[in-house]
């Protein structure tokens, strides 16, 4: 700290000798920007603010506000960081400092992306950065902006748009790179990621290999990290291509580089890739060993952070909840005080009409303003509570995803033991079957949660085939015959006496019909009927599921297809209901380019209609 103070005072002394030495100011500012210690950054900001009056140099005001933003960001106080970054941006705009604007906007976008998890806001800010850097003609900043914007679009799963932006950055940066004045590492890496997500693995390999070959001959400060990331990316993409020898080569290289850097997080990522590779090869024992090493590292790194985040969210949620209750109570007290004053003024009105009218007007206006301000605050708090609830649900998804690791390990052990079941006793075989059944149930439950929370239905590649809908519907009805027979429910099929062919995905279509038919049986009383009708229109197929159940109230129909929605109707035989089935059905119907609707009335049953375009 004393060395920093000495260097800083040396720069400041040169600045004071020329009243306002711009070079000295710039050196002090850029030295502070590259510090990693938050307290040192604040020390520089305080000193610059004291020695260079902001009124004499408007640029100083912008610099100081940005440094305070860095200070709060490094301390994890992101709301205050945003306040100072926005104040600095306003100052830069006021005095026409375009270069400072782009620096502050990049800081804001980084906070929204990494810390606040709001990529949509970051996207708009980076788009403005591109516009300003184009206006400045600053090739380096423009290339960085296109690289960041491409990464944001990849994060939002807008891969085609990401490719357009990254190729524009490549067009601008290629001539500069050829002169040895610029590195296009992030552009190449993000292009590889875009093609990877689009499952165009050969194109992804081209871009990842460009970075890999450049980093092999590099000796810069980021050399080892970049080379590790290049090897990890190549191992991943070769695994997806089923080029297992190449994948193993780069996977082992990434692990070696991670150990060389003594980084537990990088070693965990390398073990994860190697475990996936071994599993693709069918080497379950090796996969389990890699997964064990990955899990031992990842549990210490990830779970501790996950539990900490959950605890922090719970504390924030409870704090906001108490604050909101306090505000509601205060609003009720204010309302009660208001009515008391009105009563008092009405009594005085009989004696002093003119004075009472004036006082009533003033007090009523003040009370209305207080109520309006309180209501606006309550609305803002409720919006914040909704955001926290979204974050909580996101963490639930993360925890559900993490649970898949031990289930995968159990499944692999069970498979290994099944290969040796000739040496097991009958009771051991029975126990082994029960382990397999429990493992599959747990994996299906986790997959069900993830299917709803992360919309994995839309991530599955469809496999289209020409289906005879009459035979398909008969098959589904046969599968539900036993469950309907238990409740003495008759299942009927209303379909033309001819083949109706339709090009669709068998698994998705079957899953949709199974959910709808299961619900119809579940909510229909004993001895009733359920119908499935299939009809062909000019450019569409219509499938209807009609039951004689208890029906659904009209005010609950708008929320019927929402996640985790619960209706007042209950299954007639006490069957369980999670509220997930219809949300999944709606997602499947939309993926099949169709629409679903429901007509229902209490006591008259329900009709679910699915229309699929040909």
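-> sequence recovered:
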């Amino acid at each position: 700290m004393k060395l920093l103070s000495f260097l800083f005072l040396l720069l400041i002394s040169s600045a004071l000798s020329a009243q306002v030495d711009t070079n000295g100011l710039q050196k002090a500012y850029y030295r502070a920007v590259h510090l990693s210690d938050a307290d040192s950054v604040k020390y520089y900001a305080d000193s610059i603010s004291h020695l260079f009056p902001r009124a004499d140099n408007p640029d100083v005001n912008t610099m100081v506000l940005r440094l305070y933003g860095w200070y709060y960001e490094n301390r994890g106080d992101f709301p205050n960081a945003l306040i100072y970054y926005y104040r600095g941006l306003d100052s830069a705009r006021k005095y026409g400092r375009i270069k400072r604007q782009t620096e502050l906007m990049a800081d804001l976008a980084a906070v929204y992306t990494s810390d606040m998890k709001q990529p949509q806001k970051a996207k708009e800010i980076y788009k403005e950065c591109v516009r300003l850097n184009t206006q400045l003609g600053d090739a380096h900043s423009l290339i960085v902006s296109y690289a960041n914007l491409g990464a944001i679009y990849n994060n939002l799963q807008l891969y085609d748009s990401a490719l357009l932006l990254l190729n524009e950055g490549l067009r601008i940066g290629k001539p500069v790179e050829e002169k040895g004045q610029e590195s296009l590492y992030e552009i190449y890496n993000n292009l590889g990621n875009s093609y990877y997500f689009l499952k165009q693995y050969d194109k992804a390999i081209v871009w990842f290999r460009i970075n890999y070959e450049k980093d092999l001959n590099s000796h810069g400060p980021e050399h080892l990290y970049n080379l590790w990331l290049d090897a990890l990316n190549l191992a991943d993409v070769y695994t997806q291509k089923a080029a297992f020898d190449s994948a193993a080569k780069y996977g082992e290289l990434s692990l070696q580089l991670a150990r060389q850097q003594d980084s537990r997080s990088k070693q965990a990522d390398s073990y994860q890739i190697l475990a996936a590779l071994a599993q693709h090869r069918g080497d379950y024992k090796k996969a389990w060993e890699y997964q064990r090493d990955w899990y031992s590292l990842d549990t210490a790194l990830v779970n501790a952070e996950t539990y900490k985040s959950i605890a922090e969210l719970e504390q924030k949620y409870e704090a906001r909840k108490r604050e909101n209750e306090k505000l509601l109570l205060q609003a009720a007290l204010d309302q009660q005080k208001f009515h008391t004053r009105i009563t008092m003024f009405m009594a005085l009105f009989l004696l002093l009409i003119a004075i009472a009218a004036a006082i009533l007007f003033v007090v009523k206006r003040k009370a209305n303003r207080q109520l309006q301000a309180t209501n606006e605050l309550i609305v803002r708090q409720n919006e914040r509570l909704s955001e926290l609830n979204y974050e909580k649900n996101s963490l639930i998804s993360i925890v559900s995803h993490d649970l898949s690791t031990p289930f995968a390990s159990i499944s692999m052990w069970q498979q290994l033991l099944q290969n040796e079941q000739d040496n097991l006793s009958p009771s051991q075989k029975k126990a082994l079957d029960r382990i397999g059944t429990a493992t599959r149930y747990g994996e299906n439950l986790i997959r069900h949660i993830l299917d709803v929370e992360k919309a994995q239905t839309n991530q599955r590649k469809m496999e289209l085939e020409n289906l005879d809908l009459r035979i398909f519907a008969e098959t589904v009805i046969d599968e539900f015959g036993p469950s309907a027979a238990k409740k003495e429910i008759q299942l009927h099929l209303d379909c033309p006496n001819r083949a109706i062919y339709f090009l669709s995905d068998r698994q998705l279509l079957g899953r949709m019909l199974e959910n709808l038919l299961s619900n119809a049986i579940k909510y229909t009383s004993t001895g009733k009927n359920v119908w499935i009708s299939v009809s062909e229109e000019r450019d569409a197929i219509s499938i209807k599921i009609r039951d004689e159940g208890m029906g659904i109230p009209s005010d609950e129909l708008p929320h019927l297809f929402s996640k985790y929605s619960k209706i007042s109707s209950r299954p007639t035989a006490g069957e369980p209901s999670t509220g997930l089935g219809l949300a999944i059905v709606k997602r499947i119907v939309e993926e099949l380019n169709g629409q679903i609707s429901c007509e229902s009335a209490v006591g008259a049953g329900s009709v679910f209609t699915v229309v699929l375009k040909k």
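The beta strands are 464-468, 490-494, 501-505, 529-536, 540-547, 594-600, 606-613.
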